[in-house]
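seq as requested:
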Amino acid sequence: MKILIRLLFLLPFTSVYSQPNCEAFRYYYKDTIKYEACKKAEEINGLYQFSKEYQQILDESIKIDSTFAYAYRKKSVAYLKSGDFITWKKLMDNAVKYNPQDNLDYRGLMRYRCFRDYRGAIEDFEKLKELGFRTDHLGLAKALCYKMLGEREKAIEILEPHMKEEDFQAGLYDYLHLGVLYLEQKEYEKAIESFKSQSEENELAENQYYLALAYKALEQLTAYKNHLEQAKKLYIEERRMFQMYIDPIDKIYLQDIEAELKKALHGSG
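struct tokens:
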């Protein structure tokens, strides 16, 4: 159950972004136009995102209220999945414009995950924080953005205190990412400690691979070889990093493991 719950966090935000409560627009906000736009948008339930009917219903919702952010965001999903990033961005910019608090995090995450627009993602995360909303759930993504921009020390500064918080709940790959950052900074003992924590949370081929590299750097060659063999075994068992639509940062492949194993076996590591 613990792993199943964490798997939900790997899904794109679009799959867990809920339909607004239409009645709230009518009775709480006294906004009958948004209520009507919301009720129209409800008609997409059960429809295929790529269908003409799905898109037309959301177009009608936007015609009723051109500021209804939910319709823009839901309409954008098919464009993101089909690779039409320009149209996706235009729609998401409108969603953010009309409801920044509910859409800045998603737009930032997609900029980071799908477009490798690391600076743009950081800007969205910071803007959300400036608006007074919590951004704890974005800590790992923000840190990895800094890492990919070459600012590994900044990334570690973000992750270390976040992962030491009393209410911290590790995601599927958190300790792995922190361990790789330590490894890249040549802080091998810290890297090994982090990889061992990852093993306790969610063992992966990538984790054993990077753990092997840490032992290699420390010239502990038996451990280096053993962990590579374990990495290969886990990879074949499909216990490896996965994220829908894209390859996550720090992912490795079987050929990476086998190439390193070849070095270990021939003493050329």
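The CA atoms of residues 127 and 166 lie 26 Å apart.
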